[in-house]
Amino acid sequence: MRSTYKERRHHKRKNINLPVTYICSGESNVTPNVGETFDLCDSGLSFYTNIPLKEGLGIQVQTLIWNSPRACTIKWRSKKSHNVYKVGVSF
Known about the structure:
six-stranded antiparallel beta barrel; mainly beta; 7 strands
């Protein structure tokens, strides 16, 4: 059976498994939330978290591969299991 799925991404993603920390914009809590990356490209990344982040939300994301946090916007969210969400962000 042939797939009719058309790839919409402009940048090739690379699977990567690293810890990620993030802070939601406007959040008064200074303790970062945690997650784990799934994949990464020049324009964004996806990661797993236990918080159902909303599309359009601004966050600051930090991983071990960057020197400083990056401003991101949540583009999509998918519930994978009880309290496990996969989110996609753009830089």
